[in-house]
Amino acid sequence: MLNISVEEIVHHLNEHLQKAYESSPKLEQYENPRIVQQDDILLVGVYGSHIYGLATEQSDLDIFIIASEGLDGELAKLRELIPNKQDYSYQVTELQINGKQVDFSIYSEKLFRELLMRFILDSFEFYSILMMRREWMVHVNEEFAQQIKEYVENNVVNSAERALNLRKAISRESDHSFVKGKNKIVKEFKVYKGIKAMFHSLRTVVFGIQIAKHNQVIDFSKANEYWKEFELFYREKIESQLNVEPIDYEKIWLTLPICLMVLCLCFIGNTSARSIAIKNRAGGDLTLVIDFGKGKDSSSSSSEKKKQELPAVDETTKKVIDKVQDVISSSEEKQIAESLLTFANEIRQMEKLIPGSNSEQKLVKQELLAIINEFTKESEKPSAFILKSSLEMVADAKKKKTEQQQAEPGSVSSGAQSLFIQAGISVLNDAMNFVDGIGTYSTKMSSVGNWISGKLATKLDSWGLKSVAQFAKNTGKSIDGLAKKVAPYEQKLAKAIAPVVKSKTFQSIKRVVNVVGGAISIKNGLKHLGMLPKQLPKAFNKLKSTLTKAAAPIKTKAASLIKKVTKSGAAVKKANSAKKAAKAAKDAKKATKAAKKAAKTAKQPGKLAKAFGKAKAVKDVKDGFGDMKSGLFGEGKPKKSQTNNKKQTANNRRTTNNQTNNRRTANNQTANRRTANNQRGNTRNSSTRTNSSRRSTSSSRSSPTRNSTNNRGRQTTSRTSSTSRRTSSPSGRQSSSRSSSSSRGSSGGSRSSGGSKGGRR
């Protein structure tokens, strides 16, 4: 271990900075360097060969330094001095401390966080040393160390691009080291350093696997066994070639793939436990054969492997889980588990009594099996589901508090933070109870009970299964009663959790929610959290096994059940056709056309009504399953019930549309009558004119004077009569005007000559 203090490190860094400014023309444009203070140094630790366990007497001492943001500008200037720099840090290599060559790698706080987010291997090695190997730390700022721990747990390892960033970083580092190794041998003629670089390429992959599994490097000596193989190969196969002049470095490089193949055999065998063999082809090529068959591991090794693959549980999650036992006793949890199995068994008896003779009944049976499956699963550890619900309440209260603080800065003090969360929990729970399908574990359980005692019981009664319907009502009410007993546990547990997470961010609390939820969904996940399954009496264990087998067929069908049944049902197809026909019938003309089309399709009038009836029945059951699915599984958005105002508005709109259609029909009928009257009037008028013209000609021949006067009078009368009939024509204003004008002409003498002219025409 290095016997040096942080004061000495600060002194050496200031000396180095001053020399760099004095000796480099590039830095003449800047003022004197900023003096490094002790507070600028956040972390100092040893890494490299001393941590790996491969250090020798000749090995340099590698030290990493994390500096505060105040030194970021100085480090940026110093990095300008290094041409073609590929590394991320600024490195100091000419320092001698206590007669030992010391290499410093200096990172700013900002750069360190950025490299962690990108999974750069050096940064994760430093983080792992800080978390697990404190004996190799020279100096630690505890406040900064806690900040880095929370940053990695809450942001880095939970990032949506975690897998992508890790794969890219490890692949890049491994590839870079491999190419570097080849160049060291072929171009720089440094064989031993080239082999070290190739070993680092393999070690990078080993460390990457540990980071993927555990979010840090947990064993820095894991790859050392491969280094022994490299050294052995160097002594037996390469060292002899270095003693023969001229040295063929290309041949040395081509010899290395044999060693690499052997190491790959060891590496793949250790990491995947596969059967591996080497085959010699006819051309002399060696082929690596790996058996990726479906051979099963023994139960002990398989369980051990799964246990290793599970990530470590963080301290916050552990503290939260510890609160469960303080709120829910073992006997209380046992009662809840037994109640869940009892209700699942009652639902199973209901499901057996439903005939399943049509698609509707089959759908209901499937829904009941889904509930049985869920209740059986929850009976394994009811406190885990209550814990998840309580955490969600705390997270939502924390989110609301954060939003309020952003809207009103300074309105809530940090000291009152826990109290605010507790108060918010009560309000949140009350609000959730009014929203169907959204809320706590107890409200979801209550929605299942209400569906069974309500819609399901009504449907069973309509099928003539009256005794089963009554049984459903009683069971549903009992489930709702259990939900009311569970609700206080949620409240109490949420208030107990609040002080534990009062200093955490919303994202941190949400992460704990996801951890608990993920543990519920995977096998042995709860055991990993320390929440062992509840031990039940033999009778209930046997019942649980029976119910699990009964609900097995539904596990793969729960998600697509409703779509499959409704899409394949003939009743739904007819219902869809009927709905389209009803929608198309907006007025009398469309209604007639739609009725003809529907009658042609259904063949009998009664089938259309029957299709509507079946559509309504399927819709009722579908809505019930949607409520249950939303409440039990948290899927889908709940359907809001129509208020009385909305229903009244819809009725008023339909009434208005009906009145409008009636007025249009009446107007059409009036127009048809007017058209008919006009046609009859025109026919009579034409006949009258012809007869009048004949009488006028005859009278004119026998008595010119008297007949001329009479003729004018008759013609005027005829014109008036004809015009009067025209008033019934559609052109109302014009006909009325002409009738009035002609009438005045018959009483006044000045208009009579006009009538005479009309007679002559």
TrEMBL record:
Residue spans of biased composition, Gly residues class: 746-761
Residue stretches making up the Polymerase nucleotidyl transferase domain: 36-111
Bias-annotated ranges (Low complexity): 642-745
Organism: Naegleria gruberi (Amoeba)
Protein name: Polymerase nucleotidyl transferase domain-containing protein
Domain of life: Eukaryota
One function term, GO molecular function aspect: nucleotidyltransferase activity
InterPro entries: NT_sf, Polymerase_NTP_transf_dom
Biased composition (Basic and acidic residues): 617-626
Region (Disordered): 595-761
